[in-house]
Amino acid sequence: MKNIRLKVLSLLLILSGIASADVPKYVFYFIGDGMGIGQVQALRTYYKNIQDSVSALPHFYETPVSGFITTFSANDDITDSAAAGTALACGAKTRNGMIGMDADTLTLTSIAKKMKAAGRGVAIMSSVCLDDATPAAFYATRPSRHHYYQIARQGAESGFDFMAGAYFRDPYGVRSGTPGNVFAEYEAAGYTIVRGREGYEQAVIDKAQRVLWLDSDTTTENRIGYAIDGDNGDMTLPQMVRSGIDFLYKKYPKGFFMMAEGGAIDHMGHGNDPSGVLRETIEFDAAVREAIEFYKKHPRETLIVITADHETGGMSVGTIDSRHKVNMHYLPYATVSKGQFGEDVRVLLSHRGKDVTWSEVASLMADKLGLGTHIPMTAGEEGHLMMVLQEILDERSKVQETLYASYDELTKEVYKIYSAKLGLGWTTVHHTGSPVPLFVMGAGADSFDNKGWLDNTDIPRIMARLCRLGWH
Ligand SMILES: [Zn+2]
Q1: Where in 127-269 does DSSP place strands (E)?
Q2: Which residues of the chain are under the pLDDT cut of 70?
Q3: What is the structure's pLDDT at 61?
Q4: H helices of 298-403, where?
Q5: How far is residue 226 CA from its own chain's centroid?
Q6: How far is the CA of 266 from the centre of ligand 1 (A)?
Q7: pLDDT at residue 220, as a whole number
Q8: What span, in angstroms and rounded, lies between the C-alpha atoms of 421 and 377?
Q9: If you measure from the C-alpha of residue 12 to the centroid of ligand 1, how many angstroms do you get, rounded to a whole number?
Q10: pLDDT recorded at residue 404
Q11: What secondary structure does DSSP assign to 241-292, as a single string?
Q12: Are the C-beta atoms of 332 and 282 separated by less than 8 Å?
């Protein structure tokens, strides 16, 4: 009899697909905003070419399980970050623009909230604003992603333990027309608020019940500072992950859940900035590495899931002009984002006005991108840019508007040529409906091995099942 019971029990365990050793106590959820197949393959090609070795891979290729997920929303073949974030956080499709609600505006419960309710520590972090769509989908429920003030307030109500990001988009309720102070609400909810890298003092953090960690550089409010624009003392995503692990591991014997978003990959994709995308993806990969280091110490208890909410820019390895040639060795000459390059152009024009010469523009391109020196240009390309400069001086040129930035015609044309030189192509300044990659390692990773594509809504559901959190 005992024997039969044992057999039934082991059969049940096999059927549920989960051996008890596989229950992930520590769950990492990495979301590269706008990080599609093209972005990931560009990074892989970069590592291969720069490090001159086919075995040099981004850290997320260390994962034994990988695949693709579909990203479409309830009302559109091409999702935005709100609907995609909701799918990844709450396991349900919704309409573009909506946060933490299904298409009928019924409130959903995120995987992070389920983890919290089960007694785990929860960390939510992003390299962009904490009330942006992706992080918001894990703690907020609003019919519009643009309700920034109300979203930020719901963050204070969440009781999540470690919240880190660039800033809030409307902390005083000015845009929403309901004046208030979200920081006072976080303090009232037991959060210790720290600002910037210099404000993160271990003694203060150790005493904190909950932490809200925001960047101190308010000149770049909607992000912590782009990685390619250099170290300005800004916070970094790897640092946030490391600090979050430290905080939660000490405090939560029942384990933790951490969502870390590489939010600026999307900004760079919208801007069609190839070196910017690569640099942000490297930064995201470095953040993943922090989790892999943790995994190595707790291999049977740690689950790491790495994916994206959607693809941005229609980025490809290879372009209509580049044939089969990709020139990743040109990338290290880039020292600024497209936004910063545009700013440098603006400063040059405002200082020199109509006296600006082509050689001043040429030395800016050489200095910031290696274009025209390390990266050879044809006389035709140079002539085209001279003509664009003249159009600006004659006040005949247009401005390129994208979601997070606008660029003058010269910057736009310089980056078109620059992308083509690298051999990286773009089809849009918006999102695409292409599937995105999925990488999984650690406890329960096999459950994501579907022998085919998954949907974005599957991810939190599988996590919940593995962690025995139930799902309705
Ligand atoms: Zn986007």
Answers
A1: 162-165, 191-195, 210-214, 256-262
A2: 1-21, 52-56, 218-221, 472
A3: 82
A4: 338-352, 358-369, 379-393
A5: 12
A6: 5
A7: 66
A8: 9
A9: 43
A10: 72
A11: HHHHHHHHHHH-TT-EEEEEEETHHHHHHHTT-HHHHHHHHHHHHHHHHHHH
A12: no
d(CA 103, ligand 1 centre) in Å: 20
Compute the distance from residue 191 Cα to the ligand 1 centre, in Å: 30
Query: What pLDDT is recorded for position 225?
Result: 83
How remote is the CA of residue 20 from the centroid of ligand 1, in Å? 39
**Ligand 1 centre distance from Cα of residue 431 (Å):** 6
Residue 91 structure tokens: 């396991």
- 129 contact partners, CB below 8 Å, separation of at least 6: 135, 148, 165, 166, 167, 168, 169, 221, 222, 223, 263
Tell me what pLDDT residue 448 has.
Answer: 96
Expressed in angstroms and rounded, the spacing between residue 123 Cα and the centre of ligand 1 is: 23
Q: If you measure from the C-alpha of residue 446 to the centroid of ligand 1, how many angstroms do you get, rounded to a whole number?
A: 30
Q: Start-end ranges of CATH 3.40.720.10 in the chain?
A: 23-315+430-466
Q: Side-chain half-sphere of 33: how many Cα atoms within 13 Å? A: 28
The tokens describing 444, both together, are 């329960």
Superfamily (CATH H level) for 23-315+430-466: Alkaline Phosphatase, subunit A (3.40.720.10)
Half-sphere CA count of 128, side-chain side, radius 13 A: 23
CA of 129 to the centre of ligand 1 (A): 13
Residue 228 CA to residue 239 CA, distance in Å, equals 16
pTM: 0.93
